[in-house]
Amino acid sequence: MKRRGARPERMLKVSQVTEPELHPTDAAALRGSASHGGPLRQELSNAIVALFKEFFGRGPADCRTYLEPDLVVVVMTGGYYAAEQTLFEAGKWHEVRSARMSWQDTMERRFIETIERLTRRQVKAFMSATHQSPDVTVELFVLERDETAPAQPALG
Asked: Per the domain annotation, does 131 fall within a domain?
């Protein structure tokens, strides 16, 4: 029985599109063949880990920093306390995440000052995120454009 005013169901047609092959440069970057070393990356990782140890009381087990022309991304793993893990297991993930975000917001000025000092660039924006399982923390810094650098081609 059809209800008055009821709309007929519409099926969305999804066309089968084959994904194009990745460009060799992009494929290489995703495989990790691009260099992740370098003195600036190491200095940035060490400085952020030191801030975690000094002001949070504990640092991550691993830290890797990625650099792009206007972007610094610090990815850390293994830094939750046993007490935080216990809260997670009890379903209190929101409280742990909220406390972490409050701490990271409090640390914003210190994080930014550290990045600006080491990169010699101004930070335009700072974002922070945490994830429980796996235990990952990301600190992301968007840098002001470097007007002395050659223009980058637009990405499509």
From this structure: yes
> Is-contact 53 110, C-beta < 8 A?
no
Q: Is residue 1 one of the residues assigned to a domain?
A: no
User: Number of structural domains, the chain?
Assistant: 1
**C-alpha span between 146 and 116 (Å, rounded):** 13
Query: Is beta strand 71-77 parallel, antiparallel or unpaired with respect to 62-68?
Result: antiparallel
DSSP 11: P
pLDDT value, residue 126: 97
- What's the confidence (pLDDT) of residue 146? 79
Residue 34 is given by DSSP the state S
Burial of 79 (0-12, 13-18, 19+ CB in 10 A): buried
> In which domain, by residue range, is 106 found?
35-143
Q: State the average pLDDT over residues 36-63.
A: 92
Rounded to two decimals, what is the model's pTM? 0.75
